[in-house]
């Protein structure tokens, strides 16, 4: 008896018989191909049925196939055997999604697909969700029905853990044979640190696939947040030009850390591919010994001259001429690069916009020298409750800045504190 | 030339570590019993074991380098939930047995020093748990590796016992058969302890963690080769020591104390203490790795969070499994009168029975072009692989027949 079908679990229909109109045996269903052609469609349309017959595969147009339920088994009847060509916008459920790891966007983590839910809307079939929970696993093992009935006796229910297709991102492997064109737009919703965590959970190949789809800025931000081992692997896999492009977008102290982890040859190659300013800054920083303030400082700071006015700074902020995300102070320097004073953001905003900067700057600013030890640095920062501290040399020339974040990172890395 | 040496040293690790861990309580016990019970008659199994071990480990290393994915991952992605479930069920049973074996090693070695197993085993289990969860795993790995050099005392002992090297040479190349169930289970046990299934998962992960690139493939193969040599050489000398000292006097190994006698030529009165020390270190080392690795791989393939860097509440299945494996292993050993040696050999036999299943899935995957690209198996590798599987299955069938119908076996 045929029943109208509400929804199909993909694992249940895999392996089912495919018959022609005359009930001739055409083969077994070995996969569904779905079209991601229309990116606006929240749910992909199932377009192809991959049939296996005597170790040969054929790809039939799903339009000619009717799926029905007979005696608890799925039956696929094909009205006319027409092969459909697979293009680069077709992905396969068993080949690319089932049992593979995908990204749960809302959950911000990596999960494994245990099953896939497909529903009929009018004449077509759409993928609506993936099952990543234990119930999906049990269904694959064939025990979920027994479990359901047993649990009913004690009035309990094991819920399915379904994620809507729209809230997941599947990562497709790159293959010489098929070039799958896929954009990873949904990843833009993720916070940088979450995306970094996700990249750490995947294997290197998949991580590189995701990473290569990020634009330079985002790639640099994400790379900053990734843990050192994975960071090193990614940078080693990129070409020198690619690595140089990304490292240029990072704060210089971060770039230095990465380059110091690579072997000298590779580091040199990347430095040579960078813009002169960036590579010069980095080479300077690399010269510092470990355990000096100079070794963890960065070159990303903002300077103005004494005679400039408050409104100029505010305008630069509004025009995005200042694009550093992490900003706590403005440094005021003279013609010889000597640091004359420091202005906190708070003082800047509270000040009369027409004042010269030298009127609101703090001349007795707290500082460290580039050769001071990390221990002294931490003492000063904690004593004066600072979040940012300028680094100068004996001639009071401004060399760099250190953020409280960098200090914490250093402590964690040296295992002085464990998180 | 110097540069090549540097590359080799940077890639060195997975093969050697795997080779050393292979000589755990199960290994030491199995080889000792083999030598004591059958003299040189089981030596011939070492050469085929070596070839099979090398081919299998090379496949793992290659899969790890090319796909960048662990063996558990690959099995789940290529064979689906049902097969993954059965393989890991088998692996779980085998590894609970293996863990029990490691604690049997702890119990046996501590008995030599006069400590009761009821105190030492739970203590060391707690110690292992704390070491893994709270401690620095990498440092303890290095310490254990250094102590595993203690196994070299078998080499010295074997030479000092002045065995007949001609006899040994003959036994190495000429197979001899005894049609007893015990003999066949020993053969399977030797193969199972040398090519333990869980080592395949471990080796592949180690290769991935090292970040070995495909350009360094040749050096990785060399590393695997050296590791296999280490395993087989130690096995060889353990068997010979026991064969020269215990077999002639028909000393059956019932306790670890008996096996320690094999070191008398080398260590004299200190034979027991030396043996006990080596056995203890090897047991603790493997007891640390085994439950951890098993829990990790099972969680990975079924989508549960795993890893010691995660909190208990983030990864309850992982910590639960890890703790359960240790606890069950301990309980088995603490049963009064538990036959430690029999349990040990038995768990290695289970390894040998599970091995064909894991190998079959590995061979099927390593021949897939979509997975391995141009690095699929060549004909020779496939031949050795399938031959190993076939031999193991035949041995299993013979073992089953001879266990249930002793008379039928002798008719072969």
Would you kindly provide a written description of the structure presented here, covering whatever features stand out?
The complex is a heterodimer of chains A (419) and B (412). By secondary structure, chain A is of the alpha+beta class. In chain A, a hairpin with a 2-residue loop joins strand 5 and strand 6 (56-61). Chain A starts with a strand and ends in a 6-residue tail after the last helix. Chain A has helices spanning 10-13, 93-97, 134-141, 144-153, 192-201, 204-211, 216-225, 228-237, 240-248, 252-261, 264-273, 276-286, 293-296, 310-318, 345-350, 357-360, 374-383, 404-413; strands spanning 2-3, 8-9, 17-20, 25-35, 45-53, 56-61, 65-70, 73-78, 90-92, 101-104, 109-112, 115-121, 124-131, 162-164, 168-170, 303-305, 329-333, 339-344, 368-369, 388-392, 398-403. With 412 residues, chain B is an all-alpha fold. The model of chain B has no long low-confidence stretch (mean pLDDT 83). Chains A and B meet through helix 3, helix 6 and helix 8 of A and helix 5 of B.
